[in-house]
Every structure is written in structure tokens, then in C-alpha cells.
Amino acid sequence: MRTKGINHLALVCRDMGETVRFYRDVLGMPLIKTIALPDGGQHFFFDCGGGASVAFFWWPEVPAAAPGIASVAKFPQAPKSAVGSMNHVAFDMEADDLQASIKRLQAAGVEVLPMVVNHDDSAAGVAAELHPGVFVRSVYFTDPNGIMLEFAAWTKGFGPQDVAHEPAGAAAEV
């Protein structure tokens, strides 16, 4: 079996109009397909670049949002979500565009972590300054549905030395 990448990620929104305004007008992702579902719902697709899409379902009646369970409650203070949840969506971006993205999001009234986060392999996992060990730079914010989003820019390639940890799992039963 061989995949070619992500085709689309399908999420659920509380208001399709609000979601279209955010993804199309604020983030600049073209709305490329709309579907009226037979149960009264809708399914809309946005082009997020590189041949991939982010899609949203909307139904008149769905369970309420569950921050801290089905999604992140508040980043970076409470970054965990439940098993099987969608923690966040990271959109690929050029590193040179990260600062401008913060300004554009803030101008649109979007709450955004007001700095670019430099992820590295230090004990803290982040660095105050860009250095050769930083492997990705990120900007974090949420959409109107409370979904955590990230603009991410890889800063270096990976090699065998970057796979250095054994997988962890649930504690064995005694």
C-alpha cells in the first residue's frame, strides 16, 4: 500500500457561514467544493495547498464542543486532548511568511500566540531564539470552532539520528 499524502481532513463546525468566512476570507483558502447532505447537513472543502484540502461538516444538531476532550482546551496552557481526538491541524508555510501571518491574523481579530515558536530537541522542546537545532517554527491560533491550528515551517531535513526514542504505551496490566 502506498499513499501520496493527505487528501483532506474532515472536521465538524458549529456554523458553516462563520467557518467559510474564516477559512476563505481570513486564511485565504479557496472554497473548492460544497455538498448538501441528504440529512440536512453540509460538507464544504477548502484548498489548503499542495493538493490537500481541509473539509468541514455541519449538521443542524450535533453534540456541543468538548474542549480538553475532543479538542485542545487552551494552548499552550492545556495542550492535551483525548485518545481518538484531533489535537490540531498544521498547515505548511514558508518560514519567511510566519511573522506576516501573525499580523494578518491579529488584524482579523484572531487570537494568536503572538510569537513564532522555535521547536527543538532541548528538554523544554522550544527555544527562545532560532539556532541550528530548531527543526520547525510554528504560529498557533484557533478557528471560530475552537479548533487549534498551526502554521508550520520546517527548517531542516531529517535523518536516521532524528528517530531516537522507543514508542511509549499504556502501562502493562499486572
Automatic annotation (TrEMBL):
Domain of life the protein comes from: Bacteria
Occurrences of domain VOC (ranges): 5-154
PANTHER family: GLYOXALASE FAMILY PROTEIN, METALLOTHIOL TRANSFERASE FOSB
Name of the protein described by the UniProt record: VOC family protein
Annotated source species: Phenylobacterium ferrooxidans
